Amino acid sequence: MLRGRYRLFQATSVYNQEKGRSDKVTRYLGWLTDDGLLIPANHRDERSKGFKEIERKEKERLAEMEGSVQEMEQKKSADGVRKRETGRHEKEILRAVSMNARITVPELVKITGIKDTAVNYHLKNLEKRYDIEYALEIDIEKFGYVDYIAFAKFVDKKPKYDEIKEELEKIPYVQTVMITKGKYDMVILLIAEANSEARGTLYDFTRKAFPSYNIEWTMSPAYFSGLGFVPVRENFFEVLKEKVWKRTKEKPKPAHDEITDMEYEVLKAMNKNAAADFASIDREIGADRGRSNYAYHRLTERGIIKRATINMRNLQSRFDVIFILNTINVQEWAGSREKLLLDLITENGSQADTYSFACDIMSPKGVLLMAHVLKDQDLEKITEKFNDKIKGMLIYDLIVTNIVTGSINSRLFDKLQLKQYEILVSYYKYDPEKIKEMINWEN
Predict the structure, then answer these.
(1) Do 299 and 267 touch, CB atoms closer than 8 A?
(2) Using the 8-state DSSP alphabet, how is residue 31 labeled?
(3) pTM of this prediction?
């Protein structure tokens, strides 16, 4: 608003022959009437010549395009078919490697129906585009550990990013640290033993972390997750050393929560690259040929390794949101639970699963969900959908503004392998074929 009128300006650049480069300039286009009409400005200055030259070239370019509209439409149609086919194949590959990162090319050929060269091309393209990391999904409960979630609210002053990173990255049982905007300032995913020692570990953590700050801590175990997992950081293996079996007369065999030294080394190596070939792992850990292959299959049979999977670390133009559904009416929530379970397995993101993690929590009592959001409108849609479908819950969100350490897992999972699917079929008596239709698989 200038001198009682709304003025319209254009920011662009004009080539400066004297300087031999383009200069950024702002051009006044005109003013707007109350009806929204533009009254054009009458430019007579020398600088406008540059704009007129740009407009002239643009008109010439449009004229050339108009002369080949039919040809362009035909090409666009053919490109659209190819794009849809490429998108379908890439989703098939992403889903397959999410379920088994060690899947072979012949198996991917059988799934996609395209040649091995095309499979390799798509796979390399996806690895580069999404910065794919091959990770292990480890069942930490087999070692007697449990995932915990810590919510932190700084009462007065807040530490800086570097201070948070330095303070928490060195703690081996801290896996993911997220700075958030909302009710809490920070959310931490950590691992502690599922016994009486856990209370001491968590108390020690809250007492020692940021001693010079006034913090309100809320802690809760994360149970009944079923969807997503917490990627284990490399320094957690310092803690896991306690679970390496040492042969003694009193203990000739490993206990149920122990592993051999070889299994420990293989688990550690594959946590860095779950798709590495076993020959290279043997060389890395100094083992005889075939030992890592044997150890991997032993760990898989025992359920310690759930699967070799992927983590897409670069989902373009997105941010993460943590939804907390706080129970305020148990009876109403019981009637809504079915709708939430169904939403978790039928919601499809364009690149990865919309929901990356879900679990029940005790404090605040309810459900925690992590979601990938591509744009602000999607956040509004999810929140509106929750408010419409979920009753008996107070729903609020935390925007993840920064991930200080660790990561949030991103992949394209087979929803029929989730606990949520099993509950819908066994408890709510859903027809499996009906759920498959709702998931809307491409093939």
Answers:
(1) yes
(2) E
(3) 0.77
Q: DSSP states of 360-380 as a string? A: EEETTEEEEEEEEESSHHHHH
* DSSP-derived pairing of the beta strands 38-40 and 21-32: antiparallel
The letter for the amino acid at 99 is M
Residue intervals of the chain classified under CATH 1.10.10 are 71-129
Give the fold, CATH level 3, of 141-231+314-439: Alpha-Beta Plaits (3.30.70)
Domain 71-129: CATH class, spelled out: mainly alpha
Q: What would the DSSP string read from start to end of 256-276?
A: TT-B-HHHHHHHHHHHH-TT-
C-alpha closest to that of 224 among 318, 362, 375: 362
pLDDT in tens, 308-358: 999 999 987 678 999 999 999 999 999 999 999 999 988 877 788 989 999
Distances (CA, A) of 269 to 86, 214, 332: 33, 39, 47
Which DSSP helix (H) or strand (E) runs through 439?
Answer: helix 432-439
- E strands of 96-233, at which residues? 132-138, 145-154, 174-181, 186-193, 215-221, 223-227
Helices assigned H by DSSP within 130-213: 161-169, 196-208
